[in-house]
Write a structure and sequence with these properties.
It is a single chain. By secondary structure, the chain is of the alpha+beta class. It has three domains: 46-162, no CATH class; 165-276, Sandwich (Jelly Rolls), CATH 2.60.120; 289-409, Jelly Rolls (Sandwich), CATH 2.60.120.10. It is built from 15 helices and 14 strands. The strands form three sheets. Strands 9, 10, 11, 12, 13 and 14 form a six-stranded antiparallel beta sheet that branches. Helix 4 packs antiparallel against helix 5 (85-98) and helix 6 runs antiparallel to helix 8 (154-163). The longest helix is centred in the last third of the chain and has 24 residues, at 386-409. It is elongated and about 85 Å long. The termini are far apart.
Length: 414
């Protein structure tokens, strides 16, 4: 039922109700009506840049390019003043798409990037809201906190902005799906993105939620392989994309950029493996991120011995990439059980839990990356998350049963 005032006039909607109406009109393609409603939303919350961006977007959709550029320019300036560099770059790309002659924001980003080491203020970067100030310091701080941009000079930043492609992604839309090629490195200009992996039970697990200013896609991009996970826009997103040829050229000139991406690649891969490994199902996603710091990366080449049956050990290994061959021998020395384990599976749990010698020999099958966890780190983890020890113990029993079953099924020697 519609709401009415004391004088019989229809009450003006506000807040969430107004935003919902604006969204419905937008989805229905009624851009003029949606614009009016989003303008009202913006008047209610002038500091909400996402609402303001919708106003600018709808001005462009309704043919008011000049008004759209004016609004987008204010948004980009506000982002830059607050140190949100990637967001400012994304908005500047939208402005240039509408009107290629409007280069002011890009020029100011370049200028402030050149000055960030000298501590100079930039009077031309006037604050949108009087009294906020410190625009140059905020932007320098934002550049320092943005890994891909932190080491760039003004000229390099300008060239980097030129090389980025712009993509708008609707809420719920896939940015990529498992199996699609990893051809781009992505940055979030506006919005939020979730990365999902499929666990052993076939369920989708969110292993990383990314916010504005974050970059992603580096796993498949760096490995030059297809994506193994899904990337979904949680809300409407503005995404910046860097293609492989451009990235390779950049790394050739500025090797530190490649190093930065490689570091994030290693962290993100481990976060994904933790998400799909049954052992860590009971660990909250935020705790998994902290847990990742407790692991040590170990690499092995094809045929290399990882652990030997009978030796003493106090470490647990999680397979980050590649696969390993596992064998168990009987009293006479012949192999009574063998298996191949791959990404997300783990080994070494017997020695870790019981203190007994290793019960299997393990070799690398091809190049393998293992994440090593010491007994002390494992004990600390299980104090906080007892379910981890319970799952590892259940796998210990399961593997013992599999070995016994394999022995029973072997034909008797004549």
């Amino acid at each position: 039922m519609s709401k009415f005032s004391l004088f019989g006039a229809k009450a003006k909607k506000t807040g969430k109700s107004l935003r919902e109406d604006a969204g419905r009109e937008l989805l229905a393609g009624n851009y003029a009506q949606a614009l009016e409603l989003f303008i009202q939303c913006h008047e209610e919350k002038p500091d909400d840049m996402h609402v303001y961006a919708k106003v600018a977007e709808l001005r462009a959709k309704t043919g008011d390019a000049e008004g759209a550029v004016a609004d987008y320019s204010k948004i980009a300036k506000a982002y830059a003043e607050q140190g949100f560099v990637v967001q400012a770059i994304a908005i500047s790309k939208i402005i240039l798409r509408i009107d290629p002659s409007k280069t002011e924001i890009k020029d100011k980003l370049r200028k402030l990037s050149e000055e960030r080491g000298g501590g100079k203020d930039d009077d031309s970067f006037a604050s949108v809201a009087p009294g906020e100030g410190h625009a140059a310091d905020n932007l320098r701080s934002g550049l320092a906190k943005t890994p891909l941009l932190s080491g760039m000079s003004g000229e390099q930043l300008e060239s980097f902005v030129e090389s980025l492609e712009l993509r708008n992604v609707a809420a719920g839309e896939g940015i990529w799906q498992a199996g699609s090629p990893g051809e781009y490195l992505y940055l979030i200009g506006m919005g939020q993105v979730s990365l999902l992996a499929t666990d052993a039970q076939g369920r989708k697990q969110v292993f990383s939620q990314l916010k504005e200013g974050d970059f992603f896609g580096e796993r498949s991009f760096m490995a030059r392989t297809a994506h193994k996970d899904d990337a979904i826009a949680d809300v409407d997103c503005t995404i910046l994309m860097l293609d492989r040829d451009t990235f390779d050229n950049w790394v050739a000139k500025y090797p530190e950029i490649g190093t930065t991406v490689e570091e994030f690649y290693r962290q993100r891969v481990l976060a994904r493996v933790l998400a799909i490994t049954p052992v860590f199902e009971g660990v909250p996603s935020d705790a998994r991120i902290a847990l990742a710091d407790q692991f040590t990366l170990r690499t092995f080449e094809d045929g290399e011995l990882i652990m030997k049956e009978g030796e003493i050990g106090d470490t647990f290994y999680l397979i980050r990439s590649g696969s390993v061959a596992l064998t168990v021998t009987g009293p006479s020395g012949d192999v009574v059980f063998s298996a191949t384990l791959s990404e997300g599976e783990f080994v070494g749990e017997v020695a870790l839990l019981t203190g007994r010698p290793r019960t299997a020999t393990i070799f690398a099958k091809g190049s393998v990356e293992l994440m090593e966890l010491s007994r002390s780190a494992f004990d600390l983890l299980t104090e906080k998350h007892p379910s981890v020890r319970e799952v590892v113990q259940s796998y210990l029993r399961k593997r013992a049963e599999e070995t016994i079953q394999a022995i029973r099924q072997r034909p008797a020697k004549s």
